[in-house]
Amino acid sequence: MDSNTSSEKRGTLQPRRAVGRQRVAELLAAASDLMAEHGYEATTMAEIASRAGAKIGSLYRFFPNKEAVGEALLQQHMAIVHDEYEALERRAADLSPEQLADILIDLLAVLYPRVKSLPALMEAHTDRTEIRDRSRQQALVGISAALRVCAPGLDEQTAGDIAAVVLNNMKVMLGMTLKDAPTTPGAPDELRRMNRLYLCARLTPCRGTRAGHVSGDSY
Fold it and tell me: Partner of 92 for a Cys bridge, out of 128, 149, 195, 215, CB 3.0 to 4.6 A?
């Protein structure tokens, strides 16, 4: 992630007061919107300040250059995704395979408004391959953990294999939601049904005494 907007070497300022933290949040939200709309390279510091309703000096007070803004956004987005998977893992014991399937298939689409600039940031990052791999591994670990909590009898290798299939389904659903993938009005529901059937078939036998009932009207 390169930037020629500033040659300053100081680090990002971490505000201590609530008003400063709120301003940083507004600046990062504006930057995320702009980078999602126009890409990282086309977004300028002046545009970020303008979108946030802030003076350019306020932006530079917290971030010495656009690279610092991008790095802060990248860390923020990765933390949001990490926290979402951890929260799902904590809930998974109380979810049926059907419920877990429905949450997972829509998870990326639900998260997208909060991490919308992540693709642009990955593309611009100098270590884009490493970042993509880390993001994919984070998703696979999170999905696999939720699967094993929901179905304790599932072994680690199988859980990882199922997680890879589910992650691909999640990406297709995101593409349909964003109209980046071929779709029709009924296709998302068909994908949900397919994902539900798949996870019920794979997880239910591994739930032991907690095996859930698969109702016919769920499909």
Answer: 149
- Per-position pLDDT tens, the chain of length 219: 544 444 445 567 677 788 889 999 999 999 999 999 999 999 999 999 999 999 999 999 999 999 999 999 999 999 999 999 999 999 999 999 999 999 999 999 999 999 999 999 988 887 888 889 999 999 999 999 999 999 999 999 999 999 999 999 999 999 999 998 899 999 999 999 999 999 999 999 999 744 444 433 443
pTM reported for the whole predicted model:
0.83
List the domains of the chain with CATH numbers: 17-64 (1.10.10.60), 67-206 (1.10.357)
